[in-house]
Write a structure and sequence with these properties.
Strand order of the largest sheet: 6-7-8-9-4-3-10
Low-confidence stretches: none
CATH class: Mainly Beta
Length: about 130
């Protein structure tokens, strides 16, 4: 599926060819901190299927719990995370942050990772009163 998206301020924009079966939720504590929420959602896209259309993103290298280094790519102006990828010479898979995509409603998660770190209160969300606005 062809997707396109941008950061919150619009300085960074991209397009990519994404496999909708490769959308996943990550509950690791790094993703919780990076997102400011209980998880992050991403879609795995080979580097050759990603095109940066505008902007000059910034890179932050984070060493994960596994010891592997991960490049976090984000907008230097508004801070929106665009994707993450491995560090090194191996072929790159970009994990695009699906909330930056204009096709977010079509990028439904099919897997969850690091579930041991999932916030236990997530199970009770349906019981919490909600409002439209």
């Amino acid at each position: 599926m062809k997707i396109d998206g941008n950061c919150h301020c619009g300085a960074i924009s991209y397009e990519a060819e994404a496999d909708t079966e490769k959308v996943g939720i990550c509950h690791c504590t790094d993703c919780q901190k990076f997102s400011g929420g209980p998880f992050r959602i991403g879609v795995a896209v080979p580097e050759e299927n990603f095109v940066l259309l505008s902007g000059n993103p910034k890179t932050y290298i984070k060493t994960a719990e596994s010891g592997r280094k991960r490049a976090q790519i984000f907008c230097p102006d508004c801070g929106t995370h665009i994707y993450s990828t491995s560090v090194g010479d191996e072929p790159k898979i970009f994990r695009i942050r699906t909330p930056t995509s204009n096709q977010l409603n079509h990028l439904v998660p099919t897997t969850q990772g690091w579930h041991r770190s999932a916030q236990k209160w997530m199970e009770t969300l349906q019981a919490i009163p909600s409002r439209e606005k």
